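Run log // design_07
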């Protein structure tokens, strides 16, 4: 049966979309194209197709839907659940649709949906521009932005969803829809992403940023549990001051080549970096500072530096928790840091969400708009034999945070980094759920585009 489907698909590609590159399991490039970040996903897609244009995507979707084939959409391939490919499904690999067209006024950019963050920032850097991005440059921009988009510019420029001003989407009938003509669809894309079709192009906000003051501050962490506990408490006290939105901060502990590390990433988008230095001095006092790498740099150079952390691939997964307060569970976070498996890979990372990212927004279905902290419990390793321990740590740690103080946890989570099978539509979309349902009925009534929500409880 699979051979028949494969041959029919190859015949269609040769006749109707000859410019589309593709690979089957017997192709020499198949293993390279199939490679994704989470290696725990060992599925074998029926075929990997790499469209070159929006029209290619439209023809592919129309054929796939008509013939009842299963399919997934792959951007950067960094989904922590490995949802960008599935057994015997067609992978629509968007990575060849990558371009950046900066508007005349340099306030927006039109980008191909397959571009990753480093590729995007390379073009923006040439014009002394930036946009809100994540912390790992090889992650696909579109998949990151459409489901929330947490990163180091959030507190100044907003979440990824808030920086999307337009899009082109291929629906299940193979039509290319533009949100300029379907403005209600734009609201859905901002938070529910690809639930209505294949996004082939985004229009995003850009900002004048010539340089940033950015890097890491590392602390002595021989007693890692106590150190991380104190970091959380001291940072909570610091936030009670008039902490500026121009500064993005993340707290982290992991195990590196030199052993356990505890540190804070610091990114300032102040035009006058001297305004940031007093705050940097306060960050240095969150613990006993042993190293400070913060320097004047560019968003692109910082993205490259950030991307040097971690592996090209890993085994395991990630869990997340959204907390309203760090100080209320600082002791638990210290215990979680102490229990971190003592090998490279697993990490505890805490992101701060404030400023415009928390503004009440009627133009998106993204629900988590209260000031909060996104806790990443990265349960991964580059060794498959260690993955079970790291995943167990992540699960236990998330449960610990949820039960430590239920009133301190937001009901939703971050679908890009967590297990959709434990979510409900209610806690994902909150009061925006009726809007999501209406848009789903209007634009995808047969639920053709079910990822990444196929496992979410209704």
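design_07 sequence
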């Amino acid at each position: 049966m699979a051979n028949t489907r494969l041959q029919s698909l190859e015949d269609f590609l040769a006749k109707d979309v000859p410019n589309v590159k593709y690979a089957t399991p017997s192709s020499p490039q198949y293993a390279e194209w199939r490679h994704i970040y989470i290696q725990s996903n060992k599925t074998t897609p029926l075929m990997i197709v790499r469209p070159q244009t929006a029209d290619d995507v439209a023809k592919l979707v129309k054929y796939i839907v008509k013939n009842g084939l299963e399919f997934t959409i792959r951007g950067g391939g960094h989904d922590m659940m490995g949802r960008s490919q599935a057994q015997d499904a067609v992978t629509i690999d968007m990575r060849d649709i990558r371009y950046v067209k900066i508007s005349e006024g340099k306030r927006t950019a039109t980008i191909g949906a397959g571009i990753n963050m480093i590729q995007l920032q390379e073009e923006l850097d040439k014009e002394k521009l930036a946009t809100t991005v994540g912390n790992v440059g090889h992650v696909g921009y579109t998949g990151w932005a459409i489901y929330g988009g947490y990163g180091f510019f959030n507190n100044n420029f907003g979440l990824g969803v808030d920086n999307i001003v337009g899009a082109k989407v291929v629906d299940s009938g193979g039509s290319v829809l533009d949100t300029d003509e379907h403005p209600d669809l734009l609201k859905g894309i901002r938070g529910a992403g690809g639930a209505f079709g294949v996004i082939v192009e985004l229009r995003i906000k850009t900002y004048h940023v010539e340089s940033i003051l950015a890097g890491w501050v590392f602390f002595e962490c021989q007693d890692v549990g106590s150190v991380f506990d104190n970091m959380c408490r001291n940072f909570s006290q610091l936030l009670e001051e008039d902490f500026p939105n121009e500064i993005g901060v993340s707290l982290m502990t992991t195990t590196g080549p030199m052993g356990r590390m505890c540190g804070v990433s610091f990114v300032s988008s102040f035009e006058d970096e001297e305004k940031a230095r007093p705050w940097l001095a306060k960050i240095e006092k969150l613990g006993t500072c042993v190293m400070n790498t913060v320097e004047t740099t560019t968003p692109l150079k910082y993205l490259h530096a950030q991307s040097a952390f971690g592996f090209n691939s890993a085994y395991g997964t990630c869990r997340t928790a959204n907390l309203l307060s760090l100080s209320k569970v600082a002791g638990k976070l210290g215990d979680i840091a102490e229990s971190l498996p003592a090998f490279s890979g697993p990490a505890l990372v805490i992101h701060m969400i404030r400023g415009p990212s928390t503004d009440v927004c009627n133009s998106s279905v993204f629900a988590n708009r209260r000031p909060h902290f996104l806790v990443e419990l990265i349960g991964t390793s580059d060794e498959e034999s260690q993955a079970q321990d790291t995943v167990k740590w992540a699960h236990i740690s998330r449960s610990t945070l949820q039960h430590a103080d239920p009133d301190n946890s937001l009901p939703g989570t971050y679908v890009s980094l967590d297990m959709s099978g434990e979510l409900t539509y209610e806690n994902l979309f909150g009061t925006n759920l009726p809007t999501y349902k209406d848009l789903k009925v209007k634009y995808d009534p047969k639920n053709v585009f079910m990822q990444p929500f196929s496992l979410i409880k209704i």
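The chain has three domains: 2-93, 100-208+429-443, 212-421.
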